[in-house]
Amino acid sequence: xxxxxxxxxxxxxxxxxxxxxxxxxxxxxxCHAIPKGKMREQFLDRMDLERERGxxxxxxxxxxxxxxxxxxxxxxxxxxxxxxxxxxxxxxSRSLAACEGALLLVDASQGAEAQTLAHAQVALxxxxxxxxxxxxxxxxxxxxxxxxxxxxxxxxxxHLPITLVSAKHGTGVEELLERIIxxxxxxxxxxxxxxxxxxxxxxxxxxxxxxxFIRVVDGEIRRGMRIxxxxxxxxxxxxxxxxxxxxMQEVECLGxxxxxxxxxNMKNIQDSRVGDTITSADHPISQPIPGYRKAKSMVFxxxxxxxxxxxxxxxxxxxxLQLNDASLHFEADFSEALGFGFRCGFLGxxxxxxxxxxxxxxxxxxxxxxxxxxxxxxxxxRGEVLEIKSPRDFPSPGEIEEAEEPxxxxxxxxxxxxxxxxxxxxxxxxxxxxxxxxxxxxSVLLTYELPLAEIxxxxxxxxxxxxxxxxxxxxxxxxxxxxxxxxxxxxxxRERVDGLSFISAQDNAYYRARYLxxxxxxxxxxxxxxxxxxxxxxxxxxxxxxxxxxxKDVLQKCYGGDITRKRKLLEKQKExxxxxxxxxxxxxxxxxxxxxxxxxx
Length: 601
Hints:
The protein has 601 residues and is α+β, with helices and mostly antiparallel strands. The chain has 14 helices and 31 strands. It has 5 domains: 3-183, P-loop containing nucleotide triphosphate hydrolases (Rossmann fold, 3-Layer(aba) Sandwich), CATH 3.40.50.300; 196-280, Translation factors (Elongation Factor Tu (Ef-tu), domain 3, Beta Barrel); 299-372, 2-Layer Sandwich (Alpha-Beta Plaits), CATH 3.30.70.870; 384-482, Alpha-Beta Plaits; 486-598, Elongation factor 4, C-terminal domain (Alpha-Beta Plaits), CATH 3.30.70.2570. Helix content is 26%, strand content 33%. Strand 7 (196-205) and strand 8 (209-218) form a beta hairpin. Helix 7 (311-323) crosses helix 8.
């Protein structure tokens, strides 16, 4: 019997906060992967950010030895713990590409949620075996029967047996491991000189360079052999091969179906691309591994260093983050107000927020982030189609023939008691109703088509507030639709601040501008001169607020006497303020740029 028959590669997929990391902890304990003294909660979540927020941001691979009492022999498990938030769904898709099966984990009290549905569909599309499990069965609010019906709705009536577990207490976890052996197939591959391996992640090590994380499909990779990267056509010598146990541990070689990392003295970050195929330089294959899609950025914003001299440090930080987050895209940019920086593309707002925090924490580079924007398409009068990634590039109204904005299909799972408020929210954000499915008597799956720009504002916050935290959200890009769009420019002290400009639907532009100008009045610190804040479409001012000057009481020393003496002092102060206004610079705080996010009444 082939040694591959004793290997099982699987990922854990679930909605955020359904217990993936806790289940991974129990599996690590059962497989004796961590000494008891070193075990801690959320063991695979290594980042401080992950532990603070209680969410998984990066997928983690770990190799485990499991002795099966049922089969009376040892099995090799390659487990990948995946994120649950919609903004990190690309991490999930790349993890699933390295697996044959997936554990679909559902919370017994909360039931199937939007990301449960989305991850299950991705796994089914990739042809994976899905093993369902219901977690948190020990909670008083657990409703196993209801959740079983919801799983049947998602996977169909012929799904695999559902395992009931409590990851916190370890109940049912050993039964789940036995079912993984029984139902998830071993990897298919051949021991051939024609190496075929997939890069599903990477890491930068200051001493060993770039370390690609790979899943071997065919052949084997060992120290001393020369390998070829398909997309770059670069050759490297393998200096080391290792696995995650979960610490990095060197091994002799990796064979078909195995997951690990390689050391090949790769210094250039661009040489290791997620989704690339590695083959043998002496016996190359003719075609790369198919079906690995590139991440499409949904949200764009500008990152600029607070200290302009740290531009190169910011560039290096973004390059290193891009190495193990292939969904991050960036290009050099220049802003009149903020200087040199980068225009970055993200999968969503949380993704943007996490990247900004990681830059500031891990690389100690303080950044100013401009308000996020989506990519618009504009057909101008000359017949050219322009992709607008920044409000600065949006043409004036007279040059536009037709404008289009991106739309997404939004799936919201919500208790029926809050249905009216959620539908009202979607309609108010220019949404188009598509479908409504009752998953069971108290839970509804709503489908709407919405402009992506409307989700960027505080849509998720409002959704949670209206449903008291019970609604869950998932969205998918569906294409571009015609729209009447305008660019609203913001002027502070008569100077245009491109980081505060935004593109809006024409009908909402005045209300958003009015609200934003009022908000900025409270956020921008008072100066020794009057500061005007104006919003304009083209050459037309549509909203204005003035920040009053900080005043010194120059009449304090005048105890009486002629009125002309007081007038003279006031005139002198007035002249000084005029001069100061001509040369004065207004420092705009980061909160002002983020105020564009909430620019609606």
